[in-house]
Specification:
This protein is of the alpha/beta class. The protein has 14 helices and 6 strands. Strand 2, helix 2 and strand 3 form a beta-alpha-beta unit. It has a 6-stranded parallel beta sheet, sandwiched between helices.
């Protein structure tokens, strides 16, 4: 029995996933399931570059503006919601198309991942938290580097929560594992067709700069202020997203709007680089280098030809 095909359109921020996913959905009687950790949140449409009202009207979309930003969302929750959406699309006889750039969420969808939480030692966790408070996060990070250098390479020194979890894991003899190790096995219920979109660095960075200016013109600062007025703070998971955390200092009078936007663009470029590093780990990802294809219609034609050959 043939397994249902699920198309995945992945790639870095600003590469063109939204438009190509829309065109593919229109050509193949499809519906789109977002794989973007920020587009999940209500009231964060501008900063997350969510599809416009016109784009949403062209093709049915799922997992857009469905989570209260004060709640937060885990990979496990995303996995459950995305699977439910895919099943509903298939039941309607339509083609599911997963589109987005959040690598961990895509990984959770592709693989049978175990999200069971290992109970930590509350006494030991309090000890580590006290070290961070009294001696500083750098001291804690150096401790992690000494016992698990590989984990230290993957974690930002200022992400105290992750540093503490990594120390706990190392002390239990588990350690943090890279992408290839956290998967159990590829899901057996679907046949995923992985499409990766890429552009050369200069072109991608120019598109990122253009996008940041568009977000600013659409009212990014007003959106962030509204979220703060709702009671969210810089410590909420949703507000740590790129496009939000950089605007808060501007609203607090600690930098100019131009400086804030420059930070958004810089952090987005760094994020795009990390996205490409993540997606290149998937051996079955078929890449389309958009910079070397003469126009959008030609690129779309190549994508549809590849899909029809593999469906």
């Amino acid at each position: 029995m043939n397994k249902p095909k699920v198309i995945v359109v992945a790639g870095p921020t600003a590469v063109g996933k939204t438009e190509y996913a829309l065109r593919i959905a229109e050509a193949l009687n499809g519906e789109i399931v977002s794989c973007d950790s920020m587009q999940l949140y209500r009231g964060m449409d501008i900063g997350s570059a969510s599809p416009s009202a016109d784009e949403l009207a062209r093709v049915p979309h799922h997992l857009i503006s469905v989570v209260d930003p004060r709640e937060g969302c885990s990979a496990a929750r995303y996995q459950a919601m995305a699977t439910q959406a895919i099943e509903a699309i298939l039941a309607r006889g339509r083609q599911p198309i997963v589109a987005g750039g959040t690598g961990l969420y895509l990984h959770a969808l592709l693989f049978e991942m175990d999200f069971g939480v290992v109970q930590s030692d509350p006494v030991r966790r309090r000890e580590l938290e006290e070290i961070a408070t009294k001696e500083g996060g750098d001291v804690l990070f150096q401790r992690l580097a000494a016992i698990d250098p590989a984990a230290a390479d993957r974690i930002h020194p200022h992400n105290i929560k992750r540093v503490i979890r990594a120390i706990e894991a190392a002390e239990r003899g588990e350690g943090l594992r890279p992408i290839g190790a956290v998967k159990k096995q590829r899901r057996q219920d679907y046949d995923f067709l992985l499409m990766g979109l890429a552009r050369n660095r200069q072109e991608l960075y120019a598109r990122i700069d253009q996008r940041v200016q568009v977000l600013a013109d659409r009212g990014l600062a007003t959106e962030v202020q509204h979220l703060l007025d709702m009671g969210l703070t810089k410590d909420d998971t949703a507000m740590k997203g790129i496009g939000y955390k950089e605007i808060i200092p501007y609203l607090e009078g600690r930098c100019s709007f131009t400086e804030a936007l420059q930070e958004v663009a810089k952090n987005t470029r760094h994020y795009a680089k990390r996205q490409m590093t993540w997606f290149r780990k998937y051996e079955t990802m078929h890449w389309f280098s958009l910079s070397s294809i003469k126009d959008e219609e030609t690129a779309l034609g190549e994508m549809l030809t590849w899909l029809k050959e593999n469906m």
